[in-house]
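Q: Here's a chain of 233 amino acids. Please give me its 3D structure as tokens.
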Amino acid sequence: MEYDIQEIIGQLREPLEADVKIIEKAYNFAKNVHEGQERFSGKPYFSHPFETAKILASLHLDAVTIAAGLLHDIIEDTSTTEKEIRKEFGEEILGLIKGATKLGKLKYSGVERHVENLRKLFLAMAKDIRVILIKLADRLHNMQTLQYVREEKRKRIALDTFEIYVPIANRLGMGYFKGELEDLVFPYLHPDEYKIVKKISKEKIKEGDKILLKLKHKVETELEKEGVKPISI
């Protein structure tokens, strides 16, 4: 399966040649070191850093952050060393990858009284705001593909997202991430309510379609009275 790098580069605003080169280098490096690995969905593991980088690119972030998004799992999930990363990409990108790796180890234990301390620790450990953006993009794609994870892990990941990532996004004024993540955790944390909402939504859509069809017929009838032939578009 091919992942078109232009889906990332095409979202950059007036990129410099150096921006394109660092993203291309990170893309090729990540694709190579994740070769042979798979996600729970059966897709190549590289699909995850690729989609993470696409999310970062859609927010028009800088090339270094996008490159780090492509590489964010290579310390944890491949045999790549920090020395290799420093040599290939420099200290700045290495720092972002290390920061994202550290934040990934923070998990919600389920103890409510500890959750605020965990949020504070999350923010304190991320000395660079770009690390948080990478982790939010990483978590967003993981939530978008949560249905492929083993059932017993889904609720824990959704709860972790709701208790840590949603409040962090809210605290930092990142409404896009907050809204997307809240929508994605809902079916896992409140399955019964989700079924009801889904049913109501389907009924409303069906009802709306009927109204539009009636309106269409009415408009067409009035047009024909005036000698105007309706055109289908």
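Q: Can you summarize the key feature?
A: The chain has a mean pLDDT of 89.
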